[in-house]
Each structure stands twice: as C-alpha cells, then as structure tokens.
Amino acid sequence: MNNISDAIGVIAQSADTLFILLGAIMVLAMHAGFAFLEVGTVRHKNQVNALVKILTDFAFSAIAYFVIGYQIAYGSHFFASAETLGADNGYQLVKFFFLLTFAAAIPAIVSGGIAERGSFRPFLFASAMIVAFVYPLFEGIIWNGNYGFQAWLENQFGAQFHDFAGSVVVHAMGGWLALVAIYLLGARRGRKPGIAFAPSNIPFLALGSWVLIVGWFGFNVMSAQTLDGISGLVAVNSLMAMVGGTVIALIVGKNDPGFIHNGPLAGLVAVCAGSDLMHPVGAFVVGGVAGGLFVWVYTKLQRSSKIDDVLGVWPLHGLCGVWGGIAAGIFGQQALGGLGGVSIMSQLIGSVAGVIVALVGGLIVYGIVNKVASLRLSQEDEFIGADLAIHKIGSTNSDK
C-alpha cells in the first residue's frame, strides 16, 4: 500500500509541475502579445525598438527576479545544489518561472506607455530595479502574507485582500508605475492635444491583442498553481469578462479597431482579481465596465498636454486593475451570485495600497535613474526614431 501511495504522490507532483509549466509557457507567450500590440500602435520608425524592448526587458527582469526579487517576495532563493532544486520534480523552479512571467509583465506594461521617446538603456536598468525591489515588495505582501498586512485586514474586516490572478498585484502596479514614467518623460515632440498619431499597423495590433487574449487563460486559470485547484469557473469568467469588454468597447468606441482590440484586454485585466469568485454574469458586467472605462479615459487623455500614454497602459492596466480589485469585493459577494469570503473594505484598502507602492516606488526608481542618465531620447534621436537611433536598422527594407 505504501508503494501505491508513493506512486500516486509522484504522479500528482509531476502533474502539478507540468500544469504550472504549461501556465508559465502560456504567459511567456503573452509577451509576444505585448510586443506586437506596441508594434502595431507606434509609428513605423519605432517598431524595431518596441520588439527589442519587450525581449530585453524580459531577460533583465529574469536576472533581477532570480537573484533578488523572488527572495524578497517569498523568502526563497536558488543558491543551492541542483539536486536540492530538482526535488519534487523541480516544482519550485517551475513555480518561479511562472511567477517570473508575471513580474516581467510590469516592464512590458510600462514599455507601451513610454514608447517612442524613452531612452533604451536607462529604462532597461530601471525595469530591472522595479522587478528586483518594487514589484516583489507588494507581491510578497499580498501573495505571501509578508509584514502582516493581510492578517491586519482579516482581523479588521473579516477577509484578506483577494487578488487571485493579479488585477492589482500585476496590472495596477504596472499601470501606475507607467504613469510615473509617462509624467516624467512628458509628451512626444510633435504631438498636439486632441490630435493623436494613428496606429502604424492594425493587423499587428490585432495580432498582439489575440495573443494576449489566448495567453490570458494561462494567466488566470493556472494561477491555481496546482492541478487540483483548477477551476472552470475561472476560465468562463475570464471568457465572459473578455466578451463584455469587447462589446462595450465596440459600442462606446464607435467601431474604432484600436478600442475594439483593447476592450477585451481591459475586461481581462479587471476580472483577474475575482475570477475565482464571481458568477459569469457578474464577470461580464465587470469586463464591460472596464471596456467602457478604458475607452472613455483614453479618449480624455488624448486632450492632455502632460500625459502622453501611447498605448493607454494607465487606463488599461492601472485604472481597470484597480476597478478589478474593487469589483472582486462587489461581485464576489454571495448576494450577487459570487462565492463570498471577500470584504469591500479590504478590497478598497488593498487596491489603494497597490497604487501607493507603485507611485512611491516609481518616483524613487525612475527619479534616481533620470538623475544619472536621462530617461528621454535626445531631440534628434526622437525625430529620426528609436529604430535607427538605437538599433541602426528599420523594421522593413524595400531594397531589391
């Protein structure tokens, strides 16, 4: 009997390892979505830079998270023998891989906001610092119970801050960090309030959106991290929020393809926090509100002379992420068809805490880096475009 039990245990551990590995691969693929969403939105002279930023940011994020960030968040490190690290089919290593793909989403989000005028190397260094120190600080507070914040919320309001897949921990953090960088950079030269630069390639923009949509089911469903925790409720709630965001963005955005392809992403951002709690109808409403919120705020920002958010990452991730954190406390209630176990006050406080950490952390990191090396391209480099100025090659070549 012991042999049978041991065999079952090994199979179960192997299944969990494979499950979270597949999730890590799906979320890793989402970074291609970030890349092509940006490529399709920026002008032709900045397309190569968009592709390069996403890949290099991921690489530097991996180093920063491996060496520092993961230890800050979870108190674990990888400076041990391969035999030790490979225990339990290497589950802890694969868990790190999965959580790394979340951490690396932060610079990918910021990249879209600072596109076309952000200096390459300074932002690369700043991204590493964010993933090493700022993001894991809040990640550990929420997902590992560090510093007693979650225990205090539970004691005061009867429930901890609930963020199943990162509406606030990942998306709001990324969006509000981006807002700091966007404000420090200022607007692109030649941009006038009310007159936006048109997207360079709608098919690439759409491709980026679709890659993100598909990968998001790994982002949300596989946040369970073990096979026995998998939930069809999470999958269908993600689907319904995506649909809700698409429909409302279509209506409010008046058929604009940019809004239509960002609407589903807004819905998916918002549903992350409560996707394991809500009723599918509630998820549809949450996603719809997020889709409308994105279109409305992004449209307003086009009239701003100070906030030049190229991809609209602050409304998409920052505001819709906060909405998702709060919405989990509303639509997660049993009275609205949810599973319960959440507190409105805990969701409000936790969401605000995420915004504060992002704003303070962003001001410190980006402020220091900007003092050492300017975060902004020179006027000449911005004029000729980041592709030629930094990478010495354009995105296409018409030579025969």
Automatic annotation (TrEMBL):
Pfam families: Ammonium_transp (PF00909). Residues 19-392 form the Ammonium transporter AmtB-like domain. It is found in: Membrane. The lineage of its organism: Bacteria, Pseudomonadati, Pseudomonadota, Gammaproteobacteria, Alteromonadales. Belongs to the ammonia transporter channel (TC 1.A.11.2) family. The keyword Ligase does not apply. It is a multi-pass membrane protein. This is Transporter. The chain crosses the membrane at residues 18-39, 51-73, 93-111, 123-144, 164-185, 197-218, 230-252, 259-277, 283-299, 311-332, 344-369. It comes from the Bacteria. Keywords: Ammonia transport, Membrane, Transmembrane, Transmembrane helix, Transport.
